[in-house]
Design goal:
CATH class: Alpha Beta
Number of helices: 18
Shape: globular
Order of helices and strands: HHHHHHEHEEHHHEHHHEHEHEHEHEH
Number of domains: 1
Oligomer: single chain
Strand order of the largest sheet: 1-4-5-6-7-8-9
CATH topology: TIM Barrel
Bound molecules: coproporphyrinogen I
Distance between the termini: 40 Å
CATH architecture: Alpha-Beta Barrel
Helix content: 40-55%
Length: 363
């Protein structure tokens, strides 16, 4: 199965002209836009008072599952920041819950999966892929409500976790620094590892298709932690699975593939047929773009260090200019952070950054 790349597919989804011609989607296609489009990972989150108010009195997962409220949080952040795209308010880990792994988010801590996967039997006991994807209907409800409320020229990004990053949470039972259990599983039980990756991809394919059917006009796959692997291990244990997922993305939808700490993998990531490669702040944007084949082949997204939002304003804006200079004014650069907004960020600084990128690139 090979997916017709977004640059060649045309408006097969029949999007309204205002959305098809938006700065964000034009840039995903590598076309010139009136300004450099910008959106920010975790743009709706704890740094924002509106979010904290909506989150008060309910758990994070309750907020994700309340489709009207998830839509409101999504739309409010987009509008308040004036960014060029919205991203649906949800989490990559809801897929693991739908597959039958109990998930909780303890206050202040990260996620916790109380029945981590440790062998082939645990992989075999995961929920059926199609049914698990169907159980995520609340995400699609939130997408429909969000698209109804967004201006016509603002695309909504749907998303999922990549199979490697989801497998790492399923095996570790939560976040990790070393990914020791994940790697021990991968090396020690390779057949079960590949089966787990297959089950995840079989679930993610219908899940992403349903997000598109509900109104998402771009998709991002978060492979946040894949940078912990060597090139050889990425090629052997991960790339075929991620490539199968990428190939199954419906035509007419740009695919953004993002990871952190991936400067040594970036050409392999681009080879998976993503339309846009996400670049983190520890990677040189100009060098990464070149190694991915350059603007003629792929667009790039990134890559300001999110911690700059905690520092002095002049430093923040000067470094934003450095990111723009690295992109060299070439068509195909989406401005973003190298990773998500930190919860300590000053909302006014975030908004000033967006305004600055627009003002500096408008022509
Ligand atoms: O307490 C709270 O209110 C929860 C904080 C929070 C938020 C706001 C979590 C818990 N997830 C989210 C939202 C979220 N997660 C979005 C919303 C859309 C937006 O960007 O505005 C998205 C796209 C994600 C994706 C996500 N979740 C990723 C990939 C992106 C990344 O940051 O690398 C990952 C790794 C997760 C897992 C997760 N969920 C939440 C936390 C704190 C974490 C990270 C845990 C860890 O450090 O391992």
């Amino acid at each position: 199965m090979t997916r017709l790349r977004y640059r060649d597919a045309g408006n097969v989804l029949g999007l309204p002209a205002a959305r098809w011609d938006s700065a964000f989607l034009r840039t995903c296609r590598g076309e010139r836009a009136p300004h450099t489009p910008v959106w920010l990972m975790r743009q709706a989150g704890r740094y924002m008072r509106h979010y904290r108010e909506r989150r008060a009195g309910r758990s994070f997962l309750e907020l994700c599952k309340d489709s009207e409220l998830a839509a409101e949080v999504t739309v409010y952040a987009r509008e308040w920041l004036g960014v060029d795209a919205a991203i649906i308010f949800s989490d990559i880990l809801v897929v693991l819950e739908a597959l039958g792994l109990p998930l909780t988010f303890a206050a202040g801590d990260g996620p916790s999966l109380t029945r981590p996967i440790d062998d082939a039997a645990a992989v075999a006991s995961l929920g059926a892929p199609e049914q698990s994807a169907a159980d995520l209907g609340y995400v699609c409800d939130a997408i429909r409500a969000t698209v109804r409320a967004l201006p016509a020229d603002i695309p909504l990004i749907g998303f999922c976790g990549a199979p490697f990053t989801l497998a790492s949470y399923a095996i570790e039972g939560g976040g990790s620094r070393q990914f020791a259990r994940t790697k021990a599983f991968m090396y020690g039980q390779p057949a079960a590892w590949h089966r787990l990756m297959e089950r995840l991809v079989d679930t993610l394919i219908p899940y992403l298709a349903a997000q598109v059917a509900a109104g998402a006009s771009a998709l991002q796959i978060f492979d946040s932690w894949v940078g912990c692997l060597t090139r050889a291990d990425y090629a052997a244990y991960v790339a075929p699975h991620t490539a199968r997922l990428a190939a199954a993305v419906p035509p007419g939808v740009p695919l953004i593939l993002f990871g952190t700490g991936t400067s040594h993998l970036i050409d392999l990531i681009a080879a998976s047929d993503a339309d846009v490669v996400g670049v983190d702040h520890t990677t040189d944007l100009a060098d990464a773009w070149r190694r991915c084949g350059g603007p003629g082949r792929v667009s790039v997204q990134g890559n300001l260090d999110p911690a700059l939002l905690l520092g002095p304003r002049d430093r923040l804006l000067a470094q934003a200019d450095d990111v723009l200079a690295a992109a060299g004014g070439q068509a195909g650069h989406i401005f973003n952070l190298g990773h998500g907004i930190l919860k300590e960020s000053e909302p006014d600084a975030v908004r000033a950054l967006v305004e600055h990128v627009h003002a500096a690139t408008r022509h």
